[in-house]
Specification:
79 residues, two-stranded antiparallel sheet, globular
Length: 79
């Protein structure tokens, strides 16, 4: 998925510019088909676990990730 594609989706949501910047940073840091979750987001952004989980919630709401089964709870890949 192209970054611009999901950026268009954020226009219909009220995400701050800071949140959009964080999501883009995560998108750019995660390799194609790489499985990731809140711990990886935490490492990429250098934030607290609670912040990483909140960002993951927003990423899921954008429907730009799909869950991965068999790798533990809360693991996703970008579509």
């Amino acid at each position: 998925m192209k970054a611009k594609s999901w950026l268009l989706r954020t226009k219909s949501r009220t995400y701050s510019e800071k949140t959009k910047k964080y999501i883009l940073k995560i998108y750019e840091a995660i390799d194609e088909n790489q499985i990731f979750g809140a711990p990886e987001v935490e490492n990429i952004l250098g934030c607290l676990t609670s912040s990483a989980k909140e960002i993951m919630k927003k990423i899921r709401a954008l429907e730009i990730v799909e869950p991965v089964s068999g790798k533990g709870k809360g693991k996703y890949i970008f579509k």
